[in-house]
Amino acid sequence: MVTNRLWRTLSAFNRSTRSWEPIPLQNVQSQVTQKFSPTLRSIDTLWTQGLSLISWNIDAFSPRPVSRAKLILSHILEESKSPDILFLQEVTPEVRVSLLDDARVRAAFLVTDAEDQTSFEDVPFATMALLSSTRFTSALDSQGGGDGIEGGENLMLGRVSRVILPSKYRRDALCVDIIPPISPGTVFRLISVHLDSLRHTLHFRAQQMEILANVLREPGCSGGIIAGTSTPSAPRMMGSSTRTNWWMRGSHCTGGQALMELRGVSVWNGGTEWGRAGWTRLQ
Fold it and tell me: Which has the closest alpha carbon to 79: 276, 213, 227, 259?
C-alpha cells in the first residue's frame, strides 16, 4: 500500500522578527542503514524523566471556539508542569491563528502548520501538534552546541508530515519523528489523529487503521505513539483496540531500539477527560 504524504515542518517564534519561522529538521533517512545498538539500560536511563502528552479535542462546533480554545490552553498550562507534547484536534482556522498569536505558545512551544494554512484549506478543522521547546531541539540548535544529539538529553526533531487517509471528511495523520540523543539512527514517531467515527464511514475506518499500522512499521521507524480522537460511534467498530480515545503501539523491532518511556498521558474530548495513563514502555 502506497503511503501518500504532505510534507510539513515545525516552526519556532522568532522574537527579533516577531514571526514564526520554520526550524531545520534532522533528516535521518541516510542514517538508518547505520548500525546503532543502544542497550536496554542506556535507553531506560535516558527516559528516566519520561515524556508527558496531552491530547485534546477542543470541539470546533462549540458556540465560541476561539474563546473555548483559549480557556483549554489556560487549563493545560496551569498544570504544575506543561506537557512535553500537546495534540489538538478540531482546530479551526480561527483557532489556529489564536494559538499562533498566544504569547504562552510563542514562548514555550514549537508548532506545526505555522508556515501556511495548507492543512486547513477546504476542511472545517484540522489537527495541530505543539512540542515543548525545552524538551525538543532542532538540527540548528545541535550544531550550535545546544542540548542536541551530540550532548544533553533533548530529543532531536526529524521529519514532519501529514499522511493522507481515505476519509469522507479528508482526515489525515499528523506525524512528527523524534530522535533520542543516545542513538541518532533511531526514530520514534508521534502521530496525532482524528479518525472517521460515524457508522457510514466504517469502510474508511478499517483502511485508516491499516495505514496507521503500516506507518509505524516503515523502514527506519523504531516504534511510536498514536493518540487523538479515535472513538467510533458504530458498535461494529468497537474492537478491543478502539474502545478508548487513545492507544499506542510499536513496530516489529527488537532490542532497546523499540523502547520509549512515556508518562502522564491525558486525552480529552470536548470538556471530558476520556483517558489518563502512565505507561513506562512502548515496544
Answer: 276
* Backbone angles phi and psi of 177, in degrees to 5: -85, 135
Reported as a single tens digit per residue, the pLDDT across 95-140 is 999 999 999 999 999 999 999 999 999 999 999 999 999 999 875 5
Residue with cell 513496530: 251
**Cβ partners under 8 Å of residue 175, min gap 6:** 159, 160, 161, 162, 163, 189, 190, 191, 215
Residue with cell 483517558: 275
pLDDT digits (tens, 9 = 90+) for 183-226: 777 899 999 999 887 777 778 888 998 999 999 999 989 888 99
Tell me the per-residue pLDDT of 247-258, one tens digit each, with 9 for 90 and over: 444 333 322 222
pLDDT of residue 162: 97
Interatomic CA distance for residues 162 and 250, integer angstroms:
19
List the end-to-end C-alpha distance of the chain, in Å, as a whole number. 24
Q: Vertex 156, ends 18 and 219: CA angle to 5°?
A: 125
Q: Write out the E strands in the chain.
A: 5-8, 10-14, 19-22, 53-57, 85-91, 109-112, 126-132, 136-137, 155-164, 172-179, 187-194, 221-229, 246-249, 265-269, 272-277
Report which residue type is found at 132: S
User: Which triple of cell numbers denotes residue 176?
Assistant: 512528527
In contact, 85 and 129? CB cutoff 8 Å: yes
Total H helices, total E strands in the chain: 6, 15
- The amino acid present at 250, given as its one-letter code, is G
Mapping DSSP to helix (H, G, I), strand (E, B) and coil, where does residue 69 land?
A: helix
Question: What's the CA gap between 176 and 24, in Å, rounded?
Answer: 13
Using alpha carbons, list the distances in angstroms from residue 152 to 59, 141, 224.
Answer: 38, 12, 22
